[in-house]
Amino acid sequence: MIFAPLGCLAAILLFLSIPFILVMFFLNVLSFSFGELGLSPSTAITLIFAMLIGSLINIPLTRRRDTYRVPSTVRGLFAPPPEQYTGVAINVGGAVIPVCLSVYLVSLMPSLWQVTVATVVMAAVSKALARVVPGRGIVLPMFVPPVLSALLALVLASSFPAPCAYVAGTVGTLVGADLLNAHKLRGFPGVVSIGGAGVFDGIFLVGIVAVLLTALV
């Protein structure tokens, strides 16, 4: 009975520490994955946080103001026309940073045909798997693209699978899911974000999981 309060306190502290342990484990896994790309741990952590924070930032590319008439409650009259902005933006965390990192990795590759073929295949598969969901935009299954990009990299670029998997996974997903399906979003209200909304999760995971799979195989 004397040690019961201490036992309860230890259990509470252990319970409260679980989120911290999970976060640290997640960061270590991400650091390991980016380390396979030849990046230092500090650079990897910086890129991870930059992508997460950048996912909240959209850079407008085009913008258009639309107005439409809405009937008033008074018969024969119309309310003042409300305004709504439509256009295209690019997400910093889901497009800009991954593409910049991909360009850097491509510049270090000894050969480019492998990553080109893998990226084209990934783009075709991503286009086929992507779906337009009202209110969310373009969404993509989370785990099919990373597994496929890892397999393509292992088959086509066995000497440098990690960077090939990352580039094919991220660029192929961006091109296939967002750019090749952009025409399906015409007429949708609001701003369409390249690399944002439902595609960011897929792009972020495809880069991490694909590299991790190539390292573990």
In short:
The chain has 217 residues and is an alpha+beta fold. Helices cover 60% and strands 15% of the residues.
What does this structure look like?
The chain is α+β, with helices and mostly antiparallel strands and 217 residues long. It has one domain (4-216). 60% of the residues lie in helices and 15% in strands. The chain is built from seven helices and seven strands; from the N terminus they run ααββββααββααβα. The strands form three sheets. It has a three-stranded mixed sheet. The protein has a two-stranded antiparallel sheet with strand order 2-3. The protein has a two-stranded antiparallel ribbon with strand order 5-6. Helix 5 crosses helix 7 (198-216) and helix 6 (161-179) runs antiparallel to helix 7 (198-216). The longest helix has 32 residues, at 4-35. It is globular and about 60 Å long.
Rg estimate, integer Å: 22 Å
Report the uncertain regions: none
Structural class: alpha+beta
Number of domains: 1
Number of helices: 7
Query: Which series of helices and strands comes N to C?
Result: HHEEEEHHEEHHEH
Q: Helicity range of the residues?
A: 55-70%
Quick check: average pLDDT?
76
* Spatial shape: globular
User: How would you write the strand order of the largest sheet?
Assistant: 1-4-7
Q: What's the N-to-C terminus distance?
A: 51 Å
Determine the strand fraction and express it as a percent band: 15-25%
Largest sheet: 3 strands, mixed
How many strands? 7
